Each structure stands twice: as C-alpha cells, then as structure tokens.
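# nightly structure sweep
# worker-07 picked up a monomer target from the shared queue
# config: single-sequence mode, recycle default, output format = structure tokens
# input follows
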Amino acid sequence: MATPQAEAAGDEIGRKGCVVKLGGSLAFAPALTAWLAALAAGGGRAVLVPGGGPFADQVRDAQRRRPFDDATAHRMALLAMEQYGLMLCGLHPALRPAASRAEIARLRRQGLVPVWLPSAMALGRPEIAESWDVTSDSLAAWLAGTLGLRHLVLVKSAPPPEPATAERLVAAGYIDPMLPELLRRDDIAAHFVGVDQAAAFGAALAIGRLVGRRLVSAADPML
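# output follows
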C-alpha cells in the first residue's frame, strides 16, 4: 500500500504537466496570491482543480438546516467548486475557466492555467459516488486519469501524518476514501505540498519538475 515518501525536488514532468488541487481553505489566506503566481509560472503545465471552500460550507450548512439527500448535496458541491474556481480566475489573468477536455487543452497550449469547472464532465459519472465521501481531492485524481496525466498535487495546510499508510490517511480524514483507489486505477503519483511552499513549487514547475512529499500508487515499481 502506498506510503508518503521523503521531501524531494522530485519528479520530472516536463511539458506533460500535472493536476493541482488548491483547497478552499486558502480562499481568504494570504498565501493564495503566491499560489496563483506559482501556478501561472508553470506556463500551462498545471491544470487547477478548485476545492469547494466557503461555497461548499454553505451547502453543508443548508443540508444541516433543511435536510436533503446527499446526491443533491453532491451536485450543489460541484457548483460550489465552480464558484470558487471562478473567483480564482478573477484574481489572476493567467487563470481561465475550463469545463471540457478541449478547453483544457486549448488553454494549456496558450501557456495559461485551466481552472476546471467540474459539473459538465463529472456529473452523473457512475464511478463518482454522489456523497460527501468524494471530495475535490478524488475529483482531481479522476480528472488526472481522464486527461492521461500521471501526477497529482494536493496543496494542504498541514503535512500528512507519519508514519502513515493510505488507509490511515483516510481514517484520519486527511484524504477521502475514494482517492487511494483512483490513484491505483490510473497509476497516478500524488504529491502533498504545504501552503508555505508556493515559491519553491512555482520555481520547480517552471522547469518541469515537482516538489513535495510523495504518496506513490501501489502500481509504482518502487514499492
């Protein structure tokens, strides 16, 4: 089973690129500005998946106060991700909304950062459970597999607990239950990067490399 590897200026991604999930917890954090600049420095190497942030919090609050089914909440949470994504696009000129593979590819060719709006591609997919067990982390992994990308970066406010297996990360709530299976299915390497690493991440991304603590998939020959 996958385990986090040591901090490294690690994997070579070249022009192939990666998917980066930027959590909603950064929505009003000072570090957000540096992260948007870091992603822009990649010149089209990164596809950005927004978390739900304060917009998803409103969905959770509404479901607590006026209970409705989780499938409905899931659909609303996808729209929350889109709201956060549009907010990010409004904060940096290199970030542009993208709802399809064609739009993502076009923006990357232009050296811009596609910000994924997930509803059009993810809604109704049988492999994506419509529940709170599926977070934007797993949706980012699903997108990486769909795009044929083999590297996923999860920007986290806290480092992964160690020593830890993927099961323990799930049990701790650090990652959602669906993520390990998606990593295995599509042979994707996940990298955990701290919110204070924006400058280092941007510098590495600009030359086609990644930094961060790596959680390799079970299909990786290193295991």
